[in-house]
Please model this.
Amino acid sequence: MQNLRLLLWPFSLIYGLVIAVRNFLFDRAILKSTSFRIPIISVGNLSTGGTGKTPHVEYLIRLLKNSKKVCTLSRGYGRMTRGFMLVNSPATTAMIGDEPMQYYSKYKDIQVAVGEDRVSAIEHILRIPSAPEVILMDDAYQHRKLKPGLSILLIEYENVFKQDFLLPAGNLREWYAGRKRADIIVISKSPSILVPIERKRVIEEIKPYPHQQVFFSYYRYGDFNKVIGGDGGMLMSAKYYMDKRFTILMVTGIANPSGIMEYLRRHTDKLETLIFPDHHEFSEKDIRKIQETYDNIANASKIIVTTEKDAMRLRNPEINSLVNHLPIFYIPIEVVFHQDEEKVNKLILDYVRKN
Model:
């Protein structure tokens, strides 16, 4: 791996130069950034996924949806379509991507849109009947053509003290100096118990600018939910499966499954894994591989567990009949903020009210 990084390093330098020039041109207003007279909140990161953008967007949805008309806007990574789309039923992950599908499936009282060109997409959104009062942009930190009113940057806790490189040698989309554009920095996936001295150490390491507020969040894992209803076994609580020492086959295709795998390992010593690429669109061949792996587990007491995002892709109608026969469950997650949740909420709500 180290040798591969060295081989790719010259390409990272070229990429970094291009990104630095691009950001300079936007910072000096030589390249145009468009803003809109509507509250727009961007949630993004400096790296290539895995920091928890989707659950943080969901946190904002829950915070705002009872008082404002909310619309999420995503690129729709991995979808088979192109251009702007306001999601309507029926929809699949192949049409809109897994993150938008998750928002659409869970929150029926919001609008969900996808579009690669965020400026054009927002122009479309503002022309629809019953236009939203606030737009939540998922993964738009590097989309400099659009200037959000409030920018939230996620930095994963376990990466704070790690040395990373720019693409393609590493996982960074841009230089670390790009953090200056954020209004709020969230250290995501932090431990559920975080002592003050560790908070101080992390803040000193990331060196926030004077205008930036730093918060720490962690995940609260929910109970098991059936991916698809059917004859794949009766759903009991997660505790039941752990206490009865079921073997768990963890199946996932997300950027960084380490968090959920660590959570499961804390509760069971009988964990098997089957990992697919990020945003992987499951096929019949994949489901048969999952079935074969499951069948080869010697323990008669066994289940399959996946993430909520993977569940969206496993609900593909083309593989529904195969998935329906598997005892496969997903674990929902919610973002929780350490100590400062009221302060976070006030910052968000005050911005939306004033704009």
Q: What stands out?
A: Residues 72 and 170 are 29 Å apart (CA to CA). Residues 2-68+133-219+336-354 form a domain with the Rossmann fold fold (CATH 3.40.50). The mean pLDDT is 94. The longest helix spans residues 2-27.
